[in-house]
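Typical record is below.
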Amino acid sequence: MSSAPGFIYTSSAQTFLRHFLATYTLYLSLQSHNYSIHILHSFASYSTLISLASNLRIKRNMAEFQFQTDELEFIDDYYSTTDFDDESLAFSDNLSSGDGVDGGKDDSFLPDFEDDFDLLHIGKSKTDTTAGEARKGKDIQGIPWERLNFTRDKYRQTRLKLYKNFHSLPSSSSYDHLHKDCKQVEKGHNFYNFQFNTRLVKSTIVHFQLRNLLWATSKHDVYLMQNYSVMHWSALRKSVKEVLNVAKPIVPTASPRSFPLPLSRVQISTMSVKDNLLVAGGFHGELICKHLNEPGVAFSTKVTTDENAITNAVDIAESSSGSKWVIAANNDAHVRVFDATSFVCLNRFSFPWSVNNTSMSPDGKLMAVLGDSADCLVSDSNTGKVISTLQGHLDYSFSSAWHPDGRILATGNQDTTCRLWDIRNTSQSLDVLKGRMGAIRALKFTSDGRFLAMAEPADFVHIFDSHSGYKKVQEIDLFGEIGGISFSPDTEALFVGVADRTYGSVLEFNRSHQMGYLEAIF
């Protein structure tokens, strides 16, 4: 994973850059006698602003995220106008306070005020969207397109045209032929219907490449990161509750033999929630484990003192012997396995590159290991020995998921594709599934194996039907950075976390049973 993770500024530098970009954009708008905000939302114009800003050589807070100044240009690749929002253009002093992280800041790249630069004051009672309102024409995210100078379709076309995907490896001619390898699919299917959108809680992101920050433990219970807190959203009661605040001192209750370590002000980069256990990984190698039905934190520590220590992925899985494990993958090229009861470290496996993601096979015998390499590995979960090397991707990989039958492994890559592998013959991938415009940052199978959800960094979530050989697909089209996706264990719901200052939210989709009913009839 890139060692330049979130875009964190010192407060003074951040304020200066915001005002500089705002002033310059306002100048361009006035000069062209156009009081709309299309200049701000044009990636071409924004890239120009970023280029100018980069010449200022504004330094990042090295104690936070050590992001090189010359990589400012990548901000608009993923965040459009993060660190610069519509409200900044209006010089509003009542901005909602973020935690200072890019994605945590969640500055809106979407238009949220009228042509005269007056802010839209939207009451809390109007911020949520129901399925009934959506059927009557309301935008599912509550974006007031009718009050803007451009339509949703026009904005989508511009975004698709000008969006730049981030690559860690140099582009080559191989990318030109990638489309030919991708499966031809049938779009337009509707496997999951929009049910509800709430802006009472919103996803936040610490690192632009890590998007496992939302988990559903039932069709009514969703856990997600919001700034320094893990929040619980009740889809049934439509209520929000803080579960864990990592800005405060954390004092673990675990036995000393697991070497617990008190922590404070942790920046959560990844998380997993399963079987009544919440596990979170931090930006400086932190690992936090909390039982949802107990007060306090059961275990916390720093798994490494390496300077480049970010915890890229955590997993809660059952081993082949039936015991429960907590697995942490870090940028120091190690995967660590902990007992989920005692939190004692059982194993530590070393790999030749930073590990961005791991996932255990359903039988607990195999572990997929992905990282800063075009190759993906399948290793023995007990020994760490590499069993297979999966070759075909063209860039670094950040997501993986096993089909419940244990035969199919899906891997997501920055080359904008997901590859499906038959674990019995890994000489080549079975299929290549293509995204719309960006890297594949998150993958999830339903527990029955019927559907595979594939999330890009922003705007698109694709749902593939495995019964059709992954040919039939539903495309969920939204606007905003995607903080995470999760199916409920009973497959009845799909939740999507959207990270955006103004339109950040949790979207809920419910499984459509009409198709299954018709299939049963015929």
